[in-house]
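Worked problem 6 (solution included).
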Amino acid sequence: MLTPPECPEHVNEIILSIFEVYMKMPENLKPNKNSFYITIYDTLTGGMVAGDFGDLGPIDSEIFLPQTIEKINRLERNIPTKCHVSSWQSCNIADNQYGGAVLAKTHIISVAGLSQLGDEAISLAIALRLGLISLEKALEIAGISGNALCLALMDAIGRSAK
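Solution. The predicted structure is:
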């Protein structure tokens, strides 16, 4: 969980509701991965909040927190020179550089612990629900990675809200 006062409590509720929908989706190809780490970085102030959701063990936290930070750093480096909007655009599995972080206005939301596409789908859904990104931009970013899981998640969130 993200810790108040750095992060308002409603943000945790949003993240948990998205994660609950994600875990129930038949499109989730790795339902045994039931936890993740998230870091939200403000590119203007350098402020950062991070936390885990689900059943992360201590070893998982040691792996996934650094992965979220690596994705943020890599994406931030590639924004001015390559106009990247997603860590997917510079992922390199051989070097343990994965997708899962997205640029949302002046923030980078980075998730690690699910599949790469799951990480990205959760990041985009959170950005959308927090009002940091438009649906059009979220779909554009999902299109870069061919992330059909993101589209399915957004659809499932829409259905669950009714």
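Discussion: The two ends are 26 Å apart (CA to CA).
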